[in-house]
Amino acid sequence: MPDTHSPHAIRARIRNGEHSGNTSGLAPGFVQCNLVILPQAHAHDFLRFCQANPRPCPLIAMNPSPGDPTLPALGDIDIRRDVPRYRVFESGRAGDDTADIQSLWREDLVVFALGCSFSFEEALLADGLDVRNVSEGVNVPMYRTNTPCTPAGPFSGNMVVSMRPFLAADAIRAIQICTRFPSVHGAPVHLGDPSAIGIGDLSRPDFGDSVSVKQREMPVFWACGVTPQVALENARLPFAITHSPGCMLVTDMRNSQLAIL
Amino acid sequence: MPDTHSPHAIRARIRNGEHSGNTSGLAPGFVQCNLVILPQAHAHDFLRFCQANPRPCPLIAMNPSPGDPTLPALGDIDIRRDVPRYRVFESGRAGDDTADIQSLWREDLVVFALGCSFSFEEALLADGLDVRNVSEGVNVPMYRTNTPCTPAGPFSGNMVVSMRPFLAADAIRAIQICTRFPSVHGAPVHLGDPSAIGIGDLSRPDFGDSVSVKQREMPVFWACGVTPQVALENARLPFAITHSPGCMLVTDMRNSQLAIL
């Protein structure tokens, strides 16, 4: 049987232009990462931003040195070609998405691979919980909060959170499960009253799609990987690259390896 | 310096009639237990009840054999004299409290020592959380729920819960902390809307005292050690003995020994 579902095989297809879309559901069991690529001049500040805000910005790996396009900690990766779609920022503004950044590569670029909610959603689903954005087949709803991140250099902004509704007993279970995975956002940061963190209307997310909240369910909020993208826009760097939303870096690391216990 | 604060010294004072009241705050760091003493004829059913309902009835230790008044797993204990006040039940009805059950002791009595919320409250306080019943100096509020326990023989009844209010972020932290201590009720069983578990009015607890719930706080509910007392009353046994509320068995076991990780 040919190897078509391994992270290695999926990255090969992406590299060859055979897959250019969403990575949701690909290579089940393996970590997918948010991606931020910055010139070295700003890398130290961004690293400090991640260190100071680990819930929204859980750093899993970096390239060994500036300009090196590999991520040996996560697999045989060429970061210039192994993500289905990239988003290029100039002066803090997103330009067109592109499937390949070889022509944009520079010797001063630093790569940050950050944890992503796909990993903890898999753990919640494996426990039998109903992850509403999955069962309704939409993107998770995300909201800007009034909770400021700790700034670092030019990087600042309020935390963005994702929301999944649960009955109280399932919310407690979700907290227990996600506590095991601090490097993919960890335990929720809030639950219950959305206005307590500055969210006005759950049915109107700032990013992603709305999901239904059933009777007796409460909204549960996790720190979200869109937070570093917002910080990146606020920083108005001359040049930066991220993944395109939903088109993540598929790695050889297993989700179970991220469990702290 | 004389040994006055060790569990051994406290039990000696209780045994000598020098302390007959509440044990709250005594021997910090050490486990205190709820106590149930039953004739052997009903002990197997009660043990099954504990096994089937571990959240409200977390069994920590039993006497080595019926009629044996010691609990070697918990210290040099004479269970007939080492609890400040006992409550004696006849046909499911509580009679007078007594400081000594030597005259009531029988060769068929089985002793159950159950985990108590004092242990997890200590862990919450050590983490800097405001445990409202402690900061307000009252008994924790307790409520009858509409959640039935799994019955076993004559033992049945709805779960009783204790309530402590927290801000959402502190509630999440409390869930993480208490998850480490399954043998003292473990993680909360509910949070948020009291009516979801059949509680009408938070300001009117069925047992204990009411506490203030501040703005933005949510009620967090734990399975409570009063549950086995209710099951005992429902069973209408000819004869049973428990501790008197708040007057617990002070043991040599450290709270930290109960942490599963």
Structure description:
In chain A, strands 1, 2, 3, 4, 5, 10 and 11 form a seven-stranded antiparallel β-sheet that branches. In chain A, a hairpin with a 2-residue loop joins strand 3 (86-90) and strand 4 (93-98). With 261 residues, the first copy, chain A, is an alpha+beta fold. The model of chain A has no long low-confidence stretch (mean pLDDT 96). The first copy, chain A, has helices at residues 7-15, 40-52, 117-126, 132-135, 168-179, 226-235, and strands at 30-39, 59-62, 86-90, 93-98, 109-114, 142-148, 158-166, 190-191, 218-223, 240-243, 249-254. The first copy, chain A, folds into two domains: 7-116 and 236-258, PSTPO5379-like (3-Layer(aba) Sandwich); 118-227, 2-Layer Sandwich (PSTPO5379-like fold). Chain A binds chain B through residues 168-169, 171-172, 175-176, 179, 187-193, 196, 216, 218, 261, and chain B through 168-169, 171-172, 175-176, 179, 187-193, 196, 216, 218, 261.
Any idea what the CATH architecture of the largest domain in chain A is?
3-Layer(aba) Sandwich
Number of domains of chain A: 2
Class inferred from helices and paired strands of chain A: alpha+beta
User: Any idea what the shape of chain A is?
Assistant: globular
CATH domain class of the largest domain in chain A: Alpha Beta
Percent helix of chain A, as a range, is 10-25%
In terms of quaternary structure, the protein is homodimer
Give the full name of the CATH homologous superfamily of the largest domain in chain A: PSTPO5379-like
Number of helices of chain A: 6
The amount of beta strand of chain A, in percent, is 15-25%
CATH topology of the largest domain in chain A: PSTPO5379-like
What is the arithmetic mean of pLDDT of chain A?
96
Give Rg of chain A in angstroms. 18 Å
Largest interface: A-B, 18 and 18 residues
Using DSSP, what is the number of strands of chain A? 11
Q: Main sheet of chain A, how many strands, which sense, barrel?
A: 7 strands, antiparallel
Order of helices and strands of chain A: HEHEEEEHHEEHEEHEE
Distance between the termini of chain A: 34 Å
Unreliably modeled segments of chain A: none
